[in-house]
């Protein structure tokens, strides 16, 4: 699941975008400005940032500049949101290293297809040869193919089992509560029992043994 940070100080736009992305298979977090972005980014590097230009303190250009001049974060793809129809704004954002821009008002479907296009493009250009592989002990996960092997044997995992296994491995040094796992894998509005997590972990243990 791709993590997307949405930096926008206008509540209704930010909420709408976050809501739409979370309903489209992304994991989106809404942030008000640079300060909040910095806090989140230190915790977890997102796969993409949607960055509004008109923000209260540091504007989108200032934030873009900070990102692009940092060694660690310059690779994160950025889509700029602009309310202006001025061509110069678009050019300026792209010149500064933004991957795309979208002009307000925009449709949710358009935004999502732009995001997918940027993720495809940057994913390919960043790693032309190397495969997207995660390894942990006897387990190898091919992220592109969504194939998991344990002891060189391909495992049959459900969608949630795959997500859960990947999440557990990516966060292997962190203590994870049932609640946290439920939120991450099943979503905040999940109304089932937290026991579901136990069941999935038990199944995963058996399958990856
Ligand atoms: Ca704004």
Quickly list its features.
about 210 residues; 4-stranded antiparallel beta sheet; alpha/beta; Rossmann fold; single chain; binds calcium ion; 5-stranded parallel beta sheet
Descriptive report:
With 209 residues, the protein is an alpha/beta fold. The protein folds into 2 domains: 3-126, Response regulator (Rossmann fold), CATH 3.40.50.2300; 133-207, Winged helix-like DNA-binding domain superfamily/Winged helix DNA-binding domain (Arc Repressor Mutant, subunit A), CATH 1.10.10.10. It is 45% helix and 19% strand. It has helices spanning 11-22, 34-43, 60-69, 87-95, 108-126, 159-170, 178-186, 195-208, and strands at residues 3-7, 27-31, 48-52, 78-82, 100-103, 133-136, 139-142, 147-150, 153-155. The strands form 2 sheets. The protein has a 5-stranded parallel sheet, with helices on both faces. A 4-stranded antiparallel sheet has the order 6-7-8-9, with helices on one face. Helix 6 crosses helix 8. It is elongated, with a radius of gyration of 19 Å. Calcium ion is lined by residues 8-10, 52, 54-55.
